[in-house]
C-alpha cells in the first residue's frame, strides 16, 4: 500500500534563507516516525508544510494520495483556495509544544469546539465523543476544569484529545513534552504510546530518545534542512551511519 505521507524534494525558504533543502520522507499507515535533529534543522517548518501552514517552494507532499495544497481533477492538479485548504487540514491533527487551549473554555468545551463548529456535529453527540476522548487521555474527571486549573501535562493531554476529536488520519506532534516539567512528561508520552498502539499514524518531533527507541517504527534524523538518515530506531540510534547523526546522538545521550 502507498505511504500515508510521502514528501519528495520539499524545499522552503524564508526570504533568502533556504530552511528546507529537499526533504524526503515516507510514512506508512499506522507508522510512528520520530523526527530528531538539532535546533534549527527545519523540523517544525517541515511539520507545518505537511499541514499546509506553510506553502512549499518546490517538491511535493502527498497525504493519503492527495498532494497537499492541491486537488486532482481530470488528471490535472489545481491549487486549493483558502477554504479548501482548511478542509484538507481537518484530516491532520497537530499538537504543539505550547498547548494553546482556549483559556475561557473548559476542557470539555475545548474538545467539543472543533466537531461542533467545523464538522457540524450536534452538541450532545460532540459532548459524548469528547467525554470518551477525555477518558482516553485519562482526564474524564477534569472535563469541567479550565486550562488554568490544569497542570501542563493535563493541558497537553486535553490538546491531544482536542486534535483527536476531529478524527484525523494523521497526527503531527512538535516537541509535545518540551515545555513540561520533567515529572509531567511521562503522562503525555503514555497517551502517545496508547495512540501508537491503536494504530494512529504519527510524526513526532521529539528529543525523547527513550520514546523514539520504544515507540518509533522509523527514526528520521534531520539536519540543515534535509533528512540525512532514516531507519528503525535500533539502526539510527544505536548504529548511526552519518557523522552528523553520530555527533548529535553523542551530545544528547
Ligand atoms: P527546528 O524545528 O528544527 O528547530 P525550525 O523549522 O523551527 O527548526 O527552523 C528552521 C530555520 O528556519 C531556523 O533558522 C528558523 O529561524 C527559520 N525560520 C522558521 N520559521 C521562520 C519564519 N516564519 N520566518 C523566518 N525564518 C524562519
Ligand atoms: Mg522546532
Automatic annotation (TrEMBL):
Residue stretches spanning the membrane: none
Keywords, comma-separated and alphabetical: ATP-binding, Nucleotide-binding, Transport
Catalytic activity as recorded in UniProt: a polar amino acid(out) + ATP + H2O = a polar amino acid(in) + ADP + phosphate + H(+)
Coiled-coil residues: none
InterPro entries named among the record's database cross-references: AAA+_ATPase (IPR003593), ABC_ATPase_HisP-typ (IPR030679), ABC_transporter-like_ATP-bd (IPR003439), ABC_transporter-like_CS (IPR017871), MetN_ABC_transporter-like (IPR050086), P-loop_NTPase (IPR027417)
Domain of life of the source: Bacteria
Domain (ABC transporter) ranges: 5-249
Annotated GO MF terms: ATP binding; ATP hydrolysis activity; ATPase-coupled polar amino acid-transporter activity
The protein, known as: ABC-type polar-amino-acid transporter
Pfam families per the UniProt record, alphabetical: ABC_tran
UniProt key word Amino-acid biosynthesis: no
Enzyme Commission number(s): 7.4.2.1
Record-stated family: Belongs to the ABC transporter superfamily.
